[in-house]
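[job 4417] fold queue: 2 targets
>>> target A
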Amino acid sequence: MSKVRHLLGISGGKDSAALGIYMKKKYPNLDIEYYTSDTGKELDETYQLIDNLEIFLGKKIIRLTGADNSPELPFDHFIKMFNGYLPSSNARWCTKKLKLDPFEKFVGNDPVISYVGIRGDEDREGYISKKSNIQSIFPFRKNIWSEDVINKFLANSNIQLVNSLYGGLSLNGKTERANEIIHSTLSSTFNQQQKLNQLLDLGIKEFNAAVFEFLKTTNYPLSKEPSFDLIDNDEILIRDDIFNILETSGVGVPAYYKAVEFEINGKTSSYSRSRSGCFFCFYQQKIEWVWLYEQHNELFLKAMEYEKDGYTWIQDEPLSELIKPDRIERIKEEYIKRTESKKNKIQSPYLLDILSEAEDEGCASCFI
């Protein structure tokens, strides 16, 4: 039987970088393999972050690439294969070809625990591999387990098994309440999320211990491990914690998150990038495209070169139109209005909180 491998993908963004630091400091005995999927189209700041992380970790971050035997950079190789068809939110071929396929080739058929940097203040799961030999763990969250594991664990058909697993735990006077929650069947008036939250509120460590014992009855990779250090992890890390980890470790916050001031029609504001990923990532907001144009003009012009035969990075607006002076002015004015309306709602020193409406940290979801 193959040894269980522990993997952690570095996307170049803040959350995955902070997770690498966190795991190194808190679980130094875990033999974690760190990797990154290099599209060849990242910002220089991304590569600098990876270099800084390697120094901190004392370990090489393995570079995975698609199209290994091609003389071209990975993205350029595949865009030719797709006849110039640009990726989009509806056709994320870049994710599959440049991220997922190289990762699954790297994993092979080995049993793998994949650590994912989704924070405790995020309401998303990210990409979960359909391969049965890959199991995702989320160390920053209150619930470290993936949704597929929770679906099985809390299924009505498993009530007696879960009850017996909790029966072997020391619940410090909470046994009666645990039995009540466990025996409450899922229904239209009591859903899985409610049951999950109630059990976690009863005790995170106890919940983790029960799930780990449950996994021994399955074929998940963790069923092959005699123990798992993260069972005792009850920390919940949010955005401010992530920045603190990066700053105090010496690795530093990626430079593209740092606010750059601008002025338009007598009003001042600031912008930055809200995500990692390729410099032409189609998930960028329009203000971020303006940031790229003004802060990395040579990269913006390269992004423009890919827009051919009606294919554009932004639906219904080519980059050549976006950089017209009056259009940039409108984008900045709209951005200022939006940020001003949010300032009263978001109390944070980080521009990222204001800029990001639906943060996805680029292709972080590709790191399974």
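>>> target B
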Amino acid sequence: MNEISDIGRSAALANIACTNAVAVSRPILKQRGQREVFCGLTGIVWLHRRIQDAFFLVVGSRTCAHLLQSAAGVMIFAEPRFATAIIDERDLAGIADANEELDRVVTRLIERRPDIKLLFLVGSCPSEVIKLDLSRAAIRLNNRFAATPRVLAYSGSGIETTFTEGEDACLASLVPTLPATDTTTLMVVGTLAEIVEDQFRRYFAALGIENVGFLPPRRAADMPPVGPNTKYLLAQPFLANTALDLERRGATRIPAPFPLGVEGTTAWFEAAARECGISAAKTSEVLAAPAARAKESLAQARATLANKKIFFFPDSQLEIPMARFLSRELGMVLTEVGTPFLHRDHLAEELTLLPETAFLSEGQDVDRQLDRCRAEKPDMVVCGMGLANPLEAEGFTTKWSIELVFTPVQGFEQAADLAELFARPLRRRAALKV
């Protein structure tokens, strides 16, 4: 697909043609400027809820600790399954041996929390600055504790990762540890709420699809096996490195839209059913009733959202499937759909479903994008928390993109909840008008 510099929207739409045979004809504005986005440490907030016997130890600064506690809303008397090993002035000055200090902190943690089965050492900007090799530290600690708990390492540093890339790095660190298998299996890849996993398992069972595993699982002992006969479905669009590592182990991706809204969820299950040899008639029989209920549940939100203009700033990498859902099922008008990274293969099915009038941008140059947003005068702006308050002060209605990751939104039963995340701010704005 052609990529263009930031030369202006009208010229781009007039002069650039798409050469990708998979996606619809459209230009993509490629930006490389100042960006406003959380670092990958934020992913710990939903990952630690998912893997119930895992612990996430951030090797970072007090700023990292404050970020996580603020994002998670942790009260001071709670005992969560994440913490920060503080890098202080002695570590930065080289007075203390950072590896010895880390070993000491981990030893105390394991003695205090024997229930931990999986320990992640999570890199941050400070640990990157002092060149602390957490991968080697994980190997050393695994040898010391005989892999009980298993210790893994990944980077959530803002130098290397953005908001949702933290989950990608975490899951990629798990792939080499997955048990091998030659059995035909299906793997769902991406963090899902427990209620969503339970619903998906019921639909797979009704379709007759067995041997379904989820990555990440609820418990460390339940890691799904992988091998040359493994097919995997992405439940999240931001898992490029995890997908690549799975394919190196022989797995094959099932191309599909993402399970957001009625249309996306239906197509997602249909793709799995076709790959597993399930007849179209059987698939239709299983999915028809829940799809009809979900479609009916969207009516109230659609009445609020239809014909409203929406503008997406790049933040979570969920922007393109969200835009597809809002446009096709709720009647919203897409102005600009910005995303931090656009993986053409993983999003090919989504791109073909977007209206040709939607303007796509990849990366960010925040000042220029703010100018385009103001010129469009959208009814709603989807953005990170850092941009939301200033835009609200200018009179825009905003939706925090972080809520779209924290909230269960996949599947038929959650379609109305997803729609309401966008409808409520507009209703609130209307109610506050004098």
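[job 4417] complete. Note on B: The longest helix spans residues 280-297.
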